[in-house]
Structures are given as structure tokens and as C-alpha cells.
């Protein structure tokens, strides 16, 4: 059974701080990893994808992947109140059948 | 660029009534298509996915069905709604070897 796990939170950080969101997955046969942001009442939007070990930066967002530890994280620098949302981790497992599994999400609150 | 549409945006239906939700994608061909349901405060539950016209895979046995009559059209249906069918219904399209998924705006369904 493939699983993607996230701490449900809520994670509360002050404005301007770094928010760190974590995700673990159960199966080593995985190639691609995604972070989605979902505002309350809205649909998820893709913010980052990462495919190889290490860091990938896009503006204030940095995704970090460690396949040996089966761990992917998202760092948000200079957090803003507008970053307050639920962040979903998704993992693409290339083992046949339906391949992408979503975590339940971590709620982030950025306090002004 | 690609665009995904869903309608209606909101729907209130009595128990036992039929349901039809529609999703269309523009700007791409032969996408993978998905229906998800998200209950209040919960994660994404995959309902159906399709890799081509007329090809539907069901992930969760229930009173819902899906059809793909055209390449970029995906329909979710029910003959008789249950109270437990209430939720936020999301259509997504995916592409590429990593199945990067993009979500539509969603339909909020309330069954009374």
C-alpha cells in the first residue's frame, strides 16, 4: 500500500519567518514529487515539482528531496499572511496502475 | 495554454435526485482525466480516472459513475444521491511521464 504522510498541523509561523512543511512516502519506486497549495474553498494549485535529490528553488519556495530517506519538504522563506493555506504533498509512484498519491495536507497559518 | 472548466460551481440537491457534473479541458489532447472528492477538512479521495475515450477506472465502489464521451470531456454522474455524496468535487487533468496534475475550479455539492 503506497502512502504519503503529512503532519496535519496547523503550523503557525510569524510573518517573515521560514515555514517548513514535511512529507514522507512509503515506496522507494517513486520518481516525481509535487507540492500544491489549496486556499480555503478553492481547488489545489501546483506550486513546485521536484524529480531529483537535492534542493530546487523557485522564488520564496524551496523543495528538498531525499530519496534515501523517503522524505520531501517545502520551505517558504519570508512567509506572508497570504501564504496561509493547506499544502498538499503528492508523489508519483511508477509501479503501474494509478500512480499519483496525495497526502492529506498541512494547514499553515502565517501571523501578521 | 491549457484550461480546465467545471460546472456547475455550486449545487444543492435533494437525497435521491440524479447528478451530472461536467469537466472539459482546453489546449491539450489525450490528457489523463481524474475525478476527486474532498470532504470538509479532509484530503483528496480519487473517484475515477481515465486515460482515453471510453476508458474509465474506478477507485472507490459507490453510487457514482463516470464517462468520457470525448477526448477532453469527463462527466461524473449518479442516479440517486446520498447524503454522504456531499463534498467538493474536483476534476484534474494530467500529462507526461510524471503525470503532473492540474485541477479545475471544483463543484461544491450539498445533498439535503
Describe this structure in words.
- The complex is a heterodimer of chains A (112) and B (112).
- Chain A is mainly β.
- Helix content of chain A is 0%, strand content 56%.
- Chain A has strands spanning 4-5, 11-14, 19-25, 30-38, 45-50, 54-58, 61-66, 71-76, 85-93, 100-102, 106-111.
- In chain A, strands 2, 4, 5, 9, 10 and 11 form a six-stranded mixed β-sheet that branches.
- Chain A starts with a strand and ends with a strand.
- Chain B is mainly β and 112 residues long.
- In chain B, strands 2, 4, 5, 6, 9, 10 and 11 form a seven-stranded mixed β-sheet that branches.
- In chain B, a hairpin with a 4-residue loop joins strand 9 (87-95) and strand 10.
- The termini of chain B are far apart.
- In chain B, 34% of the residues are buried.
- The A-B interface holds A 31-32, 34, 36, 41-46, 49, 51, 88, 90, 92, 98-100, 102-105 and B 42-44, 46, 49, 57, 59, 90, 94, 98-106, 108.
Principal-axes geometry of chain B comes out as globular
Total strand segments of chain A: 11
Q: Please report the distance between the alpha carbons of the first and last residues of chain B.
A: 38 Å
Question: Pairing-aware structural class of the strands and helices of chain B?
Answer: mainly beta
Proportion in β-strands of chain B: over 45%
Main sheet overview of chain A: 6 strands, mixed
What percent of the residues of chain B sit in helical stretches (DSSP H or I)?
under 10%
In round numbers, the mean pLDDT of chain B is 92
Secondary-structure element order of chain A, as H and E? EEEEEEEEEEE
What does the radius of gyration of chain A come to? Answer: 14 Å
End-to-end separation of chain A = 41 Å
Major sheet of chain B, described briefly?
Answer: 7 strands, mixed
Q: Determine the number of helices of chain B (DSSP H or I, runs of at least 4 residues).
A: 0
Give me the count of strands of chain B: 11
Q: Helical element count of chain A?
A: 0
Tell me roughly what share of residues is in helical segments of chain A: under 10%
pLDDT average of chain A, as an integer?
92
Helix and strand run of chain B: EEEEEEEEEEE
What portion of the residues of chain A fall into strands of 2 or more residues? Answer: over 45%
Amino acid at each position: 500500500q503506497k502512502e504519503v504522510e503529512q503532519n496535519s498541523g496547523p503550523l503557525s509561523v510569524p510573518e517573515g519567518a521560514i515555514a517548513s512543511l514535511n512529507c514522507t512516502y512509503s515506496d522507494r519506486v517513486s520518481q516525481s514529487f509535487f507540492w500544491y497549495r489549496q486556499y480555503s474553498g478553492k481547488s489545489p494549485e501546483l506550486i513546485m515539482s521536484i524529480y531529483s535529490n537535492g534542493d530546487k528553488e523557485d522564488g520564496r519556495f524551496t523543495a528538498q528531496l531525499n530519496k534515501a530517506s523517503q522524505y520531501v519538504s517545502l520551505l517558504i522563506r519570508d512567509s506572508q499572511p497570504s501564504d496561509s493555506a493547506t499544502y498538499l504533498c503528492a508523489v508519483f509512484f511508477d509501479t503501474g496502475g494509478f500512480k499519483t498519491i496525495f497526502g492529506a495536507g498541512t494547514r499553515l497559518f502565517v501571523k501578521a | 495554454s491549457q484550461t480546465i472548466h467545471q460546472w456547475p460551481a455550486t449545487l444543492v440537491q435533494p437525497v435521491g435526485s440524479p447528478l451530472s457534473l461536467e469537466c472539459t479541458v482546453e489546449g491539450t489532447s489525450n490528457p489523463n482525466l481524474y475525478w476527486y472528492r474532498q470532504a470538509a477538512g479532509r484530503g483528496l479521495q480519487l473517484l475515477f480516472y481515465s486515460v482515453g475515450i471510453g476508458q474509465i477506472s474506478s477507485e472507490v465502489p459507490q453510487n457514482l459513475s463516470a464517462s468520457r464521451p470525448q477526448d477532453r470531456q469527463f462527466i461524473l454522474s449518479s442516479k440517486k444521491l446520498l447524503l454522504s455524496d456531499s463534498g467538493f468535487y474536483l476534476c484534474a487533468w494530467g500529462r507526461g511521464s510524471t503525470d503532473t496534475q492540474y485541477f479545475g475550479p471544483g463543484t461544491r455539492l450539498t445533498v439535503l
